[in-house]
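Give me structure tokens for this 204-residue protein.
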Amino acid sequence: MEHNIQMLPGYRINEYLLVLSPPEEVWNKIVKVKEEFAETYQSAQARWGKPHITLATFVQYEMMEARIVNRLKAVGMGQYPFKAELRDYGSFPSHTIYINVVTKVPVQNLIKQVRSETQRLMKLNEENKPHFIMEPHVTVARKLQPWQYEKAWLAYSNKHFTGRFIADGMLLLKRAQNTKAYQIVQRFAFQNLPVATIQGELFG
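Here you go.
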């Protein structure tokens, strides 16, 4: 039965990512770091992942997408653009190395806002709840084997990185389950509008 329900339009389950995506100059700088890492530590994964700060990940039926998009649009309209500053490296032992996001508070405030507005819509079922990434970071490489992690962290704990950009929008990405490439669903601009204006825009 499960299988058949999957075949119905709208019942297709997608994986979604909500991210802050850096502009080209910072993006290219991070890509260079990732490629160098992939080369040095034989980590193909470092090369695939796109540079971004993940705000939330969730799986949901396709038919829920329009409602989630509408809610995220409202969050974006009320959000002010803010400076995101990246500096040096951090790690989640013993599998992930990332670039630190120094300006955590505005990112965390945005995530809390997204969580309070969209958590219910993003939850597929008890086993599949959304994850909100309260420790903002830009992944260099993840799913590392212990030897890769140990060797790489020895080097990267002493390396330096700097980058900054104005976060003026967030991106919703999706991919069908068990596929590799994400596609863009929509970008939500941060417009810092008062609540009354947002309600007028959305429901007027």
